[in-house]
User: What shape does this take?
Amino acid sequence: MLRDFFIGLSQNQFLNSAAKKYGLKMGAQSVVAGTNIPEVIKSIKELNAQGISCTVDNLGEFVFKKEEATEAKDQILQVIEAIHENKVDAHISLKPTQLGLDIEYDFCLNNLREIVHRANEYGIFINFDMEDYGHLQPSFDLLDELSREYDNVGTVIQAYFYNAQENLEKYKNYRLRIVKGAYKEPEEYAYQDKKDIDNNFIKLIEWHLLNGKFTSIATHDHRVINHVKEFVKKNDIPNDKFEFQMLYGFRKDLQLKLASEGYNFCTYVPFGNDWYGYFMRRLAERPQNLNLVAKQVFNKKTNTMIGLAASAFVLGRMTKNGKKKR
Ligand SMILES: Cc1cc2nc3c(=O)[nH]c(=O)nc-3n(C[C@H](O)[C@H](O)[C@H](O)COP(=O)(O)OP(=O)(O)OC[C@H]3O[C@@H](n4cnc5c(N)ncnc54)[C@H](O)[C@@H]3O)c2cc1C
Assistant: This one.
């Protein structure tokens, strides 16, 4: 119920635009690394200095206008230039919907091609983040098309999907990030039980470590991390075949510890004003994350917003006709 609540909030476009207005004034900087390129480069340099590489996400959601998608593309191109000019250890994570997947497939493909082409000139990797089930196949299609021309692309496998193993095998020769999955998905396509998701997550990670090109294990779950450490040792899997990934601002001590133990570590660094949906999904995953940011993020203004949204959400649940929202 609490998870549904926060996922409901993450999809609320009114609250999304309201949050944008406040920028990072509400203190979301503990999980968002700045609003502009100089700020994010500064954060990357700090992480690099601690032996941590970065994947940069120029935050953006609910893109339904071509101008917005073009603007997002231009911003990502600028981030690529900044990574190159500053010689920082970083690559890009992006969401196909931000580049226009909900507007027109070919328009999105062309935007992505421009980004992947420029990044390829500088040897920068581009990861296609995976969103909800409705965008899964189109995102793989985009990857298929672009990987015919470029090899600096990869994507994400979400362990809650029944077809995750099938996609893992199909894309085993790509650099893949494996995650549990962040969206609300129906039983028709995805495991609902945490235990089933966790078991599948481990199974996929092990399979890709043994058979895949390069595995990014993206989790804050210390049990999974400890399991992977044992597994790679037992199976003589060299450190250059995998890395751990976590989100900026989460479990910083563990991030540093893993890096200092000699594991490749990559922090997912989101930046920009459009932090709201991203942040709500983090709360949906783990309401205790509220502790991390409660003091800074939740002031009178946000509490009112959340209160309004809670009422809307409850009303919505009472009136909805049984159709589940993802
Ligand atoms: C780098 C990165 C990229 C991602 N990209 C995508 C993507 O493209 N698409 C997508 O759908 N999802 C993505 N996700 C989100 C992912 O799918 C999960 O929703 C998210 O990571 C939560 O699951 P978890 O594995 O971290 O552990 P959880 O299942 O949330 O937690 C398991 C256990 O770990 C411990 N734990 C977790 N968080 C903390 C914390 N902050 N402090 C202390 N203990 C903690 C607790 O004991 C908890 O019970 C990404 C996640 C990361 C880290």
About this structure: The beta strands are 53-58, 90-94, 126-128, 153-158, 175-179, 214-218, 242-247, 265-271.
